[in-house]
Amino acid sequence: MRIGFIGLGVMGRPMAKNLLKAGYELHVYDVVPKGVEELVACGAIAEASNKDVAAKSEVVITMLPNSPHVKSVILGQNGVLEGRHDGMKIIDMSSIAPLTTKEVGKACAEVGVPMLESPVSGGEIGAINGTLALMCGGDKALLEELTPVLEAMAGTITYCGGLGAGNTTKLVNQHIIAVETAAVAEAFVMGAKAGVEPEVVYNAIKDGYAGSKVLDGKLAMAMDRNFKAGFRLDLHIKDLNNVLETGHALGAPMPLASLVMDEMRYMSAIGAGSEDSAAVMRYYERIAGVELTRAK
Ligand code: NAD
Question: Cα(19) to centroid of ligand 1, in Å?
Fold first, then answer.
């Protein structure tokens, strides 16, 4: 099967490599040449535009930053729909606003192109290992048909409902990770101010009820003073923006998301936008004048 892959960033590159490893013919495009060059070195075929990728592929996968990118890549000039042909299908794996997913899916359906959404969780490491958790939305029969393709990148595949349900599920995930990271920072900074080593607290609580992957992953980054993304702070701000817009449109209360959003925006404003979203922990450290380092 010929697959197209658009968006060869932190996540897209390893996901595309796993499709190559699974034996698919892969046609790739990104506005930044670096990712394309890396994939071509692994056996992919470079295309000159998103339209060209679509023209050569039976299934087009997009892995882009946010809603406006997905809209322009699929619906825009020289975009995927301009390269459409009988039997072509789209899987958008980006994390975007559920409303945009519905809008783009409707525009695709109107010209006879079926679209599935499949945002992912699991980070760069999950993308490299092919163990991503997929949250799929759209036609269930389409998901069943495309499951072999998705399995090359996934550990788990969950059908969440119609178009928009996958990205709604992803927003729930992103909300919890953001608030939990802030909660870990606030609590551990209090502990450090009281003179108890972060590592001691961590070892004492990690296997209890407060234990979590966020606690393990984000606290380790703070203790090692390694905030290299990973998942960029600016992408988490993008997700929280989608959380807030979605929540407010539905009349759902969003006080915690609003609070952490402002903390993340502050950290981005002082230059941490390209670091991992764990950088929000430094917001708490700065106010308290401590760092959550390991014991010397
Ligand atoms: P990224 O910014 O590293 O990659 C996005 C890629 O899209 C870039 O290479 C960019 O050049 C390309 N792009 C942008 N506009 C384009 C266009 N018009 N045509 C072609 N290519 C274009 O982002 P990422 O970290 O790979 O994340 C991608 C998506 O996955 C985002 O929605 C993100 O929220 C989500 N996500 C990321 C992670 C993570 O840990 N990084 C984890 C889960 C989900």
Answer: 17
